[in-house]
Write a structure and sequence with these properties.
Structural class: mainly alpha
Helix content: 40-55%
Shape: elongated
Number of strands: 3
Order of helices and strands: HEEHHHHHE
Largest sheet: 3 strands, antiparallel
Strand order of the largest sheet: 2-1-3
Radius of gyration: 24 Å
Number of helices: 6
């Protein structure tokens, strides 16, 4: 929104009112340009991607990217274990667990983490913290 063109005024009160109106217009325009948090941002509300009441585990990567997935203890069942019994490697089982526990947005972040040769293994770090802290720790509440 373009700022209103100032008219010369002889009235100091009118000038202050015009300055305030210009400020309000500029502030409103700035607020319009502020975008809502997106998946991966610290302030993103992950609860909208899961059924109401689902308890989530929030993981913050070293670079500040945040992902929230169902708690590990909440995704396991004997029926699910039976359905993955054909999987042969630890990685296949771990990947199946993430697919079961993550919404599509969280799964996309997990899959697309950088994999530097000399850097941290984000997948392993997430796995270790998620399975170790399955029923406590940093749990997302509604609105987080």
């Amino acid at each position: 929104m373009a700022a209103a063109k100032k008219k010369p005024v002889d009235d100091p009160i009118a000038e202050v009112e015009q300055d305030r109106a210009d400020f309000d217009d500029a502030h409103a325009a700035a607020q319009d340009n502020v975008s809502a948090p997106e998946p991966g941002d610290a302030g993103y509300d992950w609860t909208q991607h899961y059924p109401k009441g689902t308890k989530l585990y929030r993981h913050t990567y070293a670079d500040g990217v945040v992902v929230a997935i169902r708690r590990f203890g909440d995704i396991t069942s004997k029926q699910w274990m039976l359905s993955i019994s054909h999987l042969q490697t630890d990685f296949q089982i771990e990947n199946a667990a993430f697919e079961r526990g993550a919404c599509p947005e969280a799964a996309a972040i997990i899959r697309n983490r950088p994999a530097p040769l000399d850097g941290p293994d984000d997948f392993q770090d997430l796995w270790d913290s998620w399975t170790r802290d399955s029923n406590g720790g940093e749990v997302a509440e509604p609105g987080e």
